[in-house]
Each structure stands twice: as structure tokens, then as C-alpha cells.
Amino acid sequence: MIELPILNYAYDEEKLGFDAPAKLPKPNRRAGEYIGIALVSIGLLVLLLAILAGIGRGSWAALLGSFGVMSVGAVIMWWYRYSHTTPGIKHDDTMFRNVQRRGIVAWGLGIFITGFYVVLYWYTDLQARGMPALFETTIRTLDPLSYRLTGGKADQWFLYGFLYTVLVLVMGFRMIMKYRHNRYQLIRTCSVMFFQLGLAFVLPGILKNLNQPEYYFTYFWPLKPEYGQPGGLSIWNSGTLGMFMIGFGIFAIVVLTPVLTYFFGKRWYCSWVCGCGGLAETLGDPWRQLSDKSNRAWHIERWLIHSVLIFVIVTTMLLWTNHVTQRAILGDATVMANKLYGFLIVQTFSGVVGVGFYPLMGSRVWCRFGCPMAAILGLFQRYFSRFRITTNGSQCMSCGNCSTYCEMGIDVRAYAQRGENIVRASCVGCGVCAAACPRGVLKLENGPRTDRYDGVDGGPLSQFIADLTSKPSKHR
Prior knowledge:
The chain is built from 22 helices and two strands. It has 476 residues and is an all-alpha fold.
């Protein structure tokens, strides 16, 4: 029976207004955090002295005193920030931080990162057009490591690879501390750190030092388009090792990719191996909640990412046709198509936009809208893989954490509320949705492929045609 005071309750919030929300208490910083920040500042000062004044430039002292001290300081800061807290995902205050909600700080950071990538990617071309050698003194700071690893002086791409690797390692440590309660997150974070350091930075440098092709075993065609083009045959001249590299590239795309995707979904690559995904999962983690969850974004995603895949396939076929016919078909047009793909997709989309837009559009802009490798893996995952995220809808309380922190823009909550398994092509299996769920509703696992066909007769092909002719719905 409802009491009379409750029935007579009439509080018009629209008319009376709302009180100002209580201010969040100031974070209780530990002394170790200040020590870490101090070390980062000291390392930055040493770097500026080496760059601007030439003090110790080109020496191990300057390199270790700058990047080394900054890295150690960042690790100490992350340790003291998370080690005393209760294990569990820390998303407190995320939506109130200016840099994490597209505030003016986020815009400034996005513009800075984008500008940095523009200058770095086209460094040589810009210099030829009169731009000062902005990175030259910074590059010289890395010479000791470059001589030891590659046998020669550092260049713009060594600087790029070095910064990329340091960010993955340092921010990877942050991920380990933040998600230390979740075994899956610990393993996959250590995996991307290992592959970036070992196979994407150290090993290519050693190969270059040995006068061998600077081959990246963590990248396959079509993500690395030159590995599937006639120009990639040049490594054949490197003898047995060159033949092995070509064979590995063919094996990776023809055998490794479909087999591993069948058992594990695209997560085996996108969340465990790929350098692009590694940077997105570590450096990009603070901005994962910014991914667009709208149906319109999903519609753009499906057409854009598959258009890029078609672009690279057609370009590769044209290059091989001209190679076989000795440029008798289309001639220089195929070369221009390849240069256009390199400029628009490889450099502008994956590099400049893919990383520069982290603070504005989330951490997986490239992976979601442009990566041709993700497109291929997604098709395998959607129609043939045994991987899915299962849901226990009866336990879902609709808090929305899963959808909020899905970096691929999937409305996970809509599936959970209906008790449906999630078999989306775009899902990279990062597992953060499951880790963020307070009720254990979501689980990453394998199972039968029958739930991938939505009742369409005829299996994968019929479902693929149905997907092409339908618009994305709210739930599928």
C-alpha cells in the first residue's frame, strides 16, 4: 500500500532547478607521485639542454639522462598512483577531466600530436621546401642507441620507432597497474609490449645492422602493403633469410590469419600483436570512451574500412599486372595509384589521423575506420570464427560501462540487455567491456558458429549478402 505523503509528493525539478553538484575532493597524491613527476621534469630539462644547447648531445649520458630518466619517472608515478588502491578498473572522474572529454586541453593535445606527425612523416620533403631541420638535434640524441642497434646514425624513422616503443612500454606499465586485477588484460598488455619492443623495434634494427632487409614480422599484407607487392620481391636477393621472409609473409596471410582468427577472433592480432593496436591500447586508453556509438558512425565504419580494403587489393593487383606485363598495361598510372594509397591511407589516415585524433575521437580511429587488415580479420570473425562475447542478460543492470568504454563504438549494453552474444566484425576482443562490468555479465569465449547467421538460410554467404543490403540496426 502506498502512503499518502508519497502520492502527494510534487517536486518539479524543471521549475525549481537543481543544486550545483558537489565538487570532487582533491586527489590524495602520494610522495612517490611527486618524485616521479620531478624525474619526468628533470629528464625533459636534460633533453631540452641537449637539443637547444648541445650539452652532451650524441652521448649515452644525454640519452639516458633524458628519455631514460623520463621513462623511469613515469613508471614511478604510475606505480604510486595505483599500487595503494583496491584492484579494479579506475574510471573515476573520467568524464570530468578536460583532457578526456574533448575539452580545450584535449583539442590542444590533438593538434600538437597531429602537427608532430605531419612534420615527422614528411620531414625530408618539408626540409626540401625550406623548413628548418626541427628534429635534427633530437635525432642526434639517439645516435648512441642507433649505432649500437642498427650500426648507423639515427634518422627520422629511428626517432619514430623509438618514441613509439617507449610510449607503448611506459603506458603499457600504466595499463598493467590499472588493470592488474584482470589476468587477461595483464597477459595481452605484456604481449603487445613484447611484440613492439622485440619484433617491431629491436629485431628490424639488428637485421639492418647485419645488412639484411629491415623486415617487420608483426606486420602483414595488406596492413603493410609493400609486403604483397612486386617491390617486396627485392628481399629475395638477401638469400635464405630473404626467401624465409617472403615465405613467412605468404604463410601469415594465407594460413596463420584464417586459422588463428577461426579459434581466437581478430583479437589475436589487433589486441595482442599489432603495433597500431598496441599504441591504441596503451597510450590511447585514457580516450577509449570517446568512440562514437551511433548507428551513423557504424554505417560510415562499414563502408569506409571495406573501401580501403578494396583500394589496396585493386592497387596490388594492378601493380602485379604491370610487373608481369612489364608496364604494358596502364604504365605509370599504377605507380601513381600506389603513391596515392601510400599518401592518403598509410601516412595520412593511419599515422596522422589515427594517432593525432586520440584525444578527440578515441583510440581506435584507424583500426575502426581504415585498417585493411582489420577488415579482413573482421570478415573472418563475423562469419567463420568461433570467438564471441557471451552475455548473461538476467544479470545486466544497464549501467552502461561496457558501451562507454568500448573503443570500437559497439553498443555492448544493447546486446547484454537482450542476452545476445556479440559477434560483431569490428570487435577487437580487448576485453575491457567484460573487465568494466560490475556484475560479470560479459565473457570472452569460443563456441559454435551458428549464432552468426541471424536465422538467414544458406550460412556465411547468405548472411554476408544480407548484411550488405541492410542498414545497421540499433542492436546488430
